[in-house]
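Issue 218. Parser rejects a valid record. Input:
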Amino acid sequence: MPRNHILPSAAAALALCLAATAAQGFERIDGKDEFMRVVDGKDLRITGIRVNVTRNGEITGRAFGMGVKGEWNWQDGFFCRTLFWGKRDLGQNCQKVSVQGNTIRFQSDRGAGEYADLSIR
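Output the parser choked on:
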């Protein structure tokens, strides 16, 4: 899997090279308050990636040795973010968010695209 494809789906929401499939056991998060209860003060991690999503609308972290920086907001039940990986602009994407235990899933293109599962620590 090419490294440059992993970061977009992660914080996050970040577009991965994983197939989009329905997942049993994941519960949809459709509100900002519920989302913040899950991620506030936590690291979101997947191999080579560590990001934080802050209450004030910032995304920060590192992925494969480069900085990750962006902004996010909640729109119509989706996590919508703009993201930079180093100097590379990964653009804007609204993502469906689901959670199962200590795993959070971001699925690109309002839930119609690829997904990334990150551990919540």
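Fixed in the parser; the record now loads. Residues 1-23 have pLDDT under 50 and may be disordered.
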